[in-house]
Amino acid sequence: MISNKKVVVVMPAYNAEKTLLRTYNEIDRTIVDEVLLVDDCSRDDTLKLAEKLGIRCFRHEQNRGYGGNQKTCYREALKLGADIVIMLHPDYQYTPKLIPAMAGMLASDVFDVVLGSRILGGGALKGGMPLYKYIANRFLTAVQNLLTGMKLSEYHTGYRAFSRKVLETLPLERDDDDFIFDNQMLCQTHYAGFRIAEVTCPTKYFEEASSINFVRSSKYGLLCLWTGVLHFLARTGIFHAEIFPAGLTHRHSKPA
């Protein structure tokens, strides 16, 4: 615990057998109360290894996608009584050593969401991020900042920490089950008025780290732009899509 708040790390996993041990070994268990892994019908022995490590495990009998996996992660974390939930990919692309800092920022009640940014500090390319992904990241982030009114360094990090209130408030079941889930959830967070912070996060790109191909990346990029447009329409009162319902506000929010 930290400040008497229960910390749960959730790991949405798919074919993560080769990197799970390295990731798990760097989790600070003096801070983290529970580690929860959801296996999205992996083709390797991810689940077997996780169980051997003593991780609390859940398995999808059919692949539900990255977003569908996260929905199970957050739902089960809340059932465990989590006050702070940190999503950590088990592919070792993000360092678990930032967990105490991210949890502390939420436990202080200064922020509601903390993002581990690969762009802050300029380490993305040094860490091996492909140049085309870096350029796409910067372009999409710039456009979405204009559409949403946010000033984030990036929208596409998979390293995120949430307060319980955020997960209880957002209509996550309305979001997509694929990779665009991350972007929809982040835009909903801002739309609802939650306070978002970013911390510099080094990243690693290597053969075993998960990634999506160019075609799926292109589809994801277009959906990110569409999500930004829907956010703009909702916050200006022109049109409320299902994922941005009218009245989705929090006590820290300001009038639109």
Structure description:
Strand 1 (7-13), helix 1 and strand 2 form a beta-alpha-beta unit. The chain is globular and about 50 Å long. It has helices spanning 17-25, 46-52, 65-79, 99-107, 131-148, 164-169, 181-191, 214-235, and strands spanning 7-13, 34-39, 56-59, 84-87, 113-117, 160-163, 196-200. Helix 1 (17-25) runs parallel beside helix 2 (46-52) and helix 7 packs parallel to helix 8. The chain has a seven-stranded mixed beta sheet, with helices on both faces. The chain contains eight helices and seven strands; from the N terminus they run E-H-E-H-E-H-E-H-E-H-E-H-H-E-H. It has a single domain (7-235), classed as Spore Coat Polysaccharide Biosynthesis Protein SpsA, Chain A. It is an alpha/beta fold. The model has no long low-confidence stretch (mean pLDDT 92). The protein starts with 6 loop residues before the first strand and ends in a 21-residue tail after the last helix.
Brief sketch in words of this structure:
Helices cover 38% and strands 14% of the residues.
Number of domains: 1
Radius of gyration: 17 Å
Q: Describe the biggest sheet? A: 7 strands, mixed
CATH topology: Spore Coat Polysaccharide Biosynthesis Protein SpsA, Chain A
Under CATH at level 1, the class stands as Alpha Beta
Identify the CATH homologous superfamily. Answer: Spore Coat Polysaccharide Biosynthesis Protein SpsA, Chain A
* Quaternary structure of the protein: single chain
Number of helices: 8
Q: So, CATH architecture?
A: Alpha-Beta Complex
Strand arrangement across the biggest beta sheet: 3-2-1-4-6-5-7
What share of residues is helical?
25-40%
> What does the average pLDDT come to?
92
